[in-house]
Amino acid sequence: MDKAVTTRWWLVRHAPVLNPERLVYGRSDMPVDLTDEKALRALSRHLPNDAVWITSHLSRTLDTALKLLELMDENILPTRETGFAEQHFGAWEKKHWNDLPKGETTRFWTDFARQHPPNGESFSDVVERVGPIFDRLTRYWAGRDIVAVIHGGTVRAALANALGLSLEAALSFHIDTLGVTRIEHITGVDQPGWRVTGVNLRY
């Protein structure tokens, strides 16, 4: 049998978003709050050196990643993957929940996993979008540590794909800002596959 190869994903949700009006902002590019240097520094001490770094195309993930890399004294420019973006809320983006049509939001929350906002995505759509990219990068960077600074919905979608979870099971995970979810893909063993080493870890 071939030698075992372990690919380690460090899924980090970005720092808190500056959103005092509490607007819907899934795919919108909102500024990020990086003032909690104590939390950022604590997280940076637990991330691996010489890792592959990936973010979505949204600035809140890239800015968080660059701050963490600065604290780690790592000179790396993360790869930006548009497919790792947060769920798209379509016509609801940048609007207040209270201003949205009640019929549309009621229907959405009755089956959050499969219903989608007007011109937007359901969580099921996110899982289907994230899966092929996640699989491709796992193969391409086999044997490496991969730090992905992404979004809560993207982390849940990655867990759904890796573990074969139902949509409802994946949505049951609470993912904090600056929380870390660690999963590993192992090949070259009798039972290859995924294992979880930590979900929503805070340092």
TrEMBL record:
<dbReference type="InterPro" id="IPR005952">
    <property type="entry name" value="Phosphogly_mut1"/>
</dbReference>
<keyword id="KW-0312">Gluconeogenesis</keyword>
<keyword id="KW-0413">Isomerase</keyword>
<comment type="similarity">
    <text>Belongs to the phosphoglycerate mutase family. BPG-dependent PGAM subfamily.</text>
</comment>
<dbReference type="InterPro" id="IPR013078">
    <property type="entry name" value="His_Pase_superF_clade-1"/>
</dbReference>
<protein>
    <recommendedName>
        <fullName>phosphoglycerate mutase (2,3-diphosphoglycerate-dependent)</fullName>
        <ecNumber>5.4.2.11</ecNumber>
    </recommendedName>
</protein>
<dbReference type="InterPro" id="IPR029033">
    <property type="entry name" value="His_PPase_superfam"/>
</dbReference>
<keyword id="KW-0324">Glycolysis</keyword>
<dbReference type="Pfam" id="PF00300">
    <property type="entry name" value="His_Phos_1"/>
</dbReference>
